[in-house]
Design goal:
The complex is a heterodimer of chains A (208) and B (177). By secondary structure, chain A is an alpha+beta fold. Chain A has seven helices and six strands; from the N terminus they run αββααααββααββ. In chain A, the strands form two sheets. A four-stranded antiparallel beta sheet of chain A has the order 3-4-6-5, covered by helices on one side. In chain A, strands 1-2 form a two-stranded antiparallel ribbon. A four-stranded antiparallel beta sheet of chain B has the order 4-5-7-6. Classes of the chains: A alpha+beta (208), B alpha+beta (177). At the A-B interface, α1, β2, α2 and α3 of A face β2, β3, α2, α3 and α4 of B. β2 of chain A pairs antiparallel with β3 of chain B, so a sheet runs across the interface.
């Protein structure tokens, strides 16, 4: 059975109408908030600008790391939630289907139109997004970029592989890292994220 | 008449995009929001805090103005403040109460918030107040409400649940007051 993303979107839209007495949205085992994409974009891209050219790589790495750790903890919570058990588990036939479930939840959260293009178990994940709010926001604000700008989606792509093929939670974060060779912010037709094993992965021998 | 935000109509989807009152929004969890805050504070210090504050202020300023325009039956200060508190709560950000507010500023109290819950869950008690997001949110909402430019209000946090005070207490002051 394939993962029915429409069902997941419906559940998220219903769930995001629910507030507990503290005004917090408890859904899929995590606390969610609903806020403008302009906020997230300004935060990321101004952080990068403040860090300047000399520390640009460090800024990007920190933003990707923040997202990957978030994706790792968030989707761990999500797949252990009663909503996942009730809604998604019945649609899962094999381990790899969980990735489809994760991307369907990410779409439901408004992160973009994520599609899994390729998955080689324990090796490689390719996710394509033609409408990322990060790439859109960058282009609207600054014009064309010379590098990929979707730091959140890049971190999250790595986290998806960590959760399926990494060490048991909480020890498997950043065993996979993703690149973004194509990005709409650079003028490419879509953004593409490719996660592969990193040097942190226990199955990868360290060089030198 | 009680102030209400018609969330079922205001929160919509356009394909994979999520829209709240005409503005593109996204759902993120406390892990991401707190990671971003911690990264900015750790790396940039006060400059990072200011970036977070200003980013929220600008975003809510742009988001709240069309809501006030759309719900044009909301005319009194009391009802506008009530709408702001409802928007904050409906966004899953927590609970805020405006007290003694006027164009010159006032006091705001929050007994629960997404960022307090998230920070305490991830990092425990802080030594200094940490609700920079809520400070920026309040400033931007007041500027939209009273039709002042961004930067008109300065919002300080006097007490904070992240440092284990009973409530988060904010003071909003208009420039020149």
């Amino acid at each position: 059975m394939t993962i029915d993303g429409t069902k997941i979107i419906h559940a998220v839209m219903e769930g995001s109408m629910i507030r507990e007495s503290k005004g917090i949205i408890p859904l899929f085992g995590v606390y969610l908030s609903l806020f403008s994409v302009h906020y997230y974009n300004k935060l990321s891209f101004h952080f990068e600008k403040i860090m300047g050219k000399e520390r640009e790589a460090e800024a990007q790495s920190l933003l990707i790391k923040a997202a990957q750790e978030c994706g790792y903890a968030t989707f761990h919570g999500i797949r252990n939630s009663w909503e996942w058990d009730e809604l998604v588990t019945p649609m899962i036939e094999k381990r790899e289907d969980q990735i489809q479930g994760f991307t369907a939840v990410a779409v439901a959260f408004g992160w973009g139109d994520l599609k899994v293009e390729e998955l080689i178990p324990n090796e490689k994940l390719v996710i394509r997004v033609s409408d990322s709010y990060e790439a859109n926001g960058y282009r609207e604000q600054y014009g064309l970029s010379d590098s990929g700008k979707c730091y959140m989606l890049r971190g999250v792509t790595g986290a998806f592989m960590d959760l399926i093929y990494g060490e048991d939670y909480p020890d498997g974060c950043r065993g996979f890292l993703a690149e973004e060779p194509l990005c709409r912010a650079k003028g490419d037709p879509y953004c593409e994220f490719i996660a592969r094993k990193s040097s942190h992965h226990p199955g990868v021998e360290k060089e030198g | 008449m009680a102030v209400q935000l018609d969330l079922e109509n205001e929160l919509a989807r356009k394909g994979h995009r999520m829209i709240l009152s005409g503005q593109p929004v996204t759902l993120h969890c406390h892990h991401y929001n707190i990671n971003l805050q911690k990264t900015l504070e750790d790396i940039l210090g006060e400059e990072g805090v200011l970036l977070l504050y200003r980013s929220v202020e600008e975003a809510i300023y742009g988001g709240f103005k069309p809501i006030l325009k759309h719900y044009n039956q909301i005319k009194t200060l009391k009802s506008k403040l009530e709408m702001a508190a409802i928007l904050y709560q409906n966004s899953g950000l927590g609970v805020i109460h405006f007290q003694d507010m006027g164009p010159e500023g006032g006091r705001i109290v929050s007994n629960a918030s997404h960022h307090v819950t998230g920070w305490l869950a991830k990092h425990g008690r802080r030594k200094t107040p940490g609700c920079h997001f809520t400070r920026g949110w309040i400033a931007g909402a007041l500027e939209a409400m009273f039709q002042y430019p961004i930067g008109h209000y300065q919002v300080k946090e006097l007490e904070c649940k992240m440092v284990r005070h009973g409530d988060c207490v904010f003071d909003a002051t208009a420039n020149g007051s």
